[in-house]
Amino acid sequence: MAAQAPIVVQERLSLPSIGVGQEFINFKSITMESDKYICVREAGAQNQVVIVDMASPMTPARRQITADSAIMCPDKKVIALKATTPGVAGDALQCFNLDTKTKLKAYQMPESVEFWKWTSPTQLGLVTTTSVYHWDITQCWRWLRASAVVAADPTPSMLVVEQQRLAAAVLATAAGSLQRQQQQQQQQQQQQQQPQQQQQQWATAVDAPPVKVFDRTPNLAGAQIISYRVSADGKWCVLIGITPGLPERPALARGVMQLYSVEQAKSQPLEAHAAAFSSVKFTGRDLPSNVISFAQKTLKDGQVLSKLHVIELGNAPGGAVKRNAELFFPAEFADDFPVSLQISERFGLVYVVTKLGLLFVYDLETATAVYRNRISPDPIFLASASDTTGGIFAVNRRGQVLLATVNEATMVPFVSQQLNNLDLALAMARRGNLPGAEGLVAQQFERQFSVGQYKEAAEVAAESPQGILRTKEVVERLKSVPPTPGQKPPILVYLGVLLQRGKLNALESAELARLVLAQNKRELLTNWWNEGKLEASEELGDLVSAAGDKDMALKIFQLSGASGKVIVSLAEKGDMGALMAYTGQSGTSLNYMQLLQQLMMNNPNGAVSLAKMVAKQTPPPVGCETNTIADLFLQRNMVREATAFLLDALADPVTVAGSQHTSLVLYGTVHVR
To answer: Any stretches that span the bilayer, and where are they (predicted)?
Structure first.
């Protein structure tokens, strides 16, 4: 039965096995900002930070660092550190590049930071008791020489010294010294003129403070903040906290949420334990929409309500899409609650993880329940999306790092057979390029094609999972449909959908080229080629060459391995050096006479160019003497080309000299008249 499950769970790592003590396996000591790194802060006689690269988890890096919190950047080896200094208000914040051993940015925050998180690879979200700030580690950098700042591994002593220096810098900035500002501007202008290699050795200054984004709503007062997220376009923010349960149900922690619109500068307080943003293209919509998904388990009028909500944000035409579904908790999980919600845009799934180890899986677009199972007998306190696999990582109190992923072979059959939801199975197969829906997709295509729904049939074929309908037969059927006034031909609909989704195969690329070149829109084809949308083939190269773009055709021939066409193209260009280099690299033998005859049929000017180059070789290739080449032209009644060739040959005293020169003059006089 487990083999047929649509979700596979495996232990990716055991933290105790790499030396992490049980006392450090908790929410305050471990952070996981993405599927790339886990960061463990070990406090004790020797304060250190353990950095686990999930690409090689059994060889963690340990660094002697004293800090209250450490979080790794989602996509690069950059660490952010937070520490307090006795006698100094607030927290000292620093970012280091561990590869280059340079400090990227630092700031003395006047308030204590209760929670922080990377909201993007270049921005940190900082949550204080009253407000939320954003700190861009790349914005407003002021460059100083490396010798003027600390640029080494972060150490305990460095943190103290740097914190004191930062406090002084903040006071100096507050004083507003005009002279200091002028000196900084002059220094900045001078350093901008330094060579690039010198700039790479510099580090950033500390004068770019975090920017306040919004104040916390009253419902979050006193809450333990457990999550903060920002939408991909930066227009929406969501802050999540938990508080003790109500007196009538103290074991069920309350989830409190604040949704904030950056554009409208407005907040909405809600009840939820976990939330995430995503981009969803709803059926019937031309463009993807910003969506927030959140999971809640609330007590209302003595009843426990557990729901997943999927809500479209912004002013959508026709009103925002709103979906919701029940999160069904078994009786033994009555006081369990969500601790994390992650989105897989690859598969279009919502993963909801609970404290007691339940995993709920829902379809994102429809909020349809797909699967539920307990993935851990131990409490889970941390989870992160796995963009690489389209699944999630979860860390439990035992120190297991669990990876839950889609079972690609069984997901679609499970949805179609166990859930008896054929529409959802088809949608998931198309969206995630999953197997198991071949028969369903083919039936849908035939049904729509037979009733004249050609546009819909073309879309089904273009989006077919595993490309099962992207065949020559289907292309020919779509081409055969008579055009309907006011509508795109089905073949154009088919190719248009594919262009939006990714790259066309060789058959489709050639078909698109025919359609576009027939309308004299070669520039469109060039743009798609430059964007990597077309697959190289000899057929595509022939079409482009016939349209007059010899350079692009040459590139296509080279990529498709059409060596014969490459040789012809180089010969047509008259680039003898490139021709010789190509034949040498590819091991292709060069038959000049055969090549000349081929060019004489299709490209007379190219034949003349090649003939001139061959004639200039000393000695000429065997069988390629000047009069022999001239005969080839004259045998085909190519008098003008023969004349051009002979005049060039006669004009070169090095190539043609003495008696041979006289013979050619006589030859030309007799034969070229």
So the answer is: none
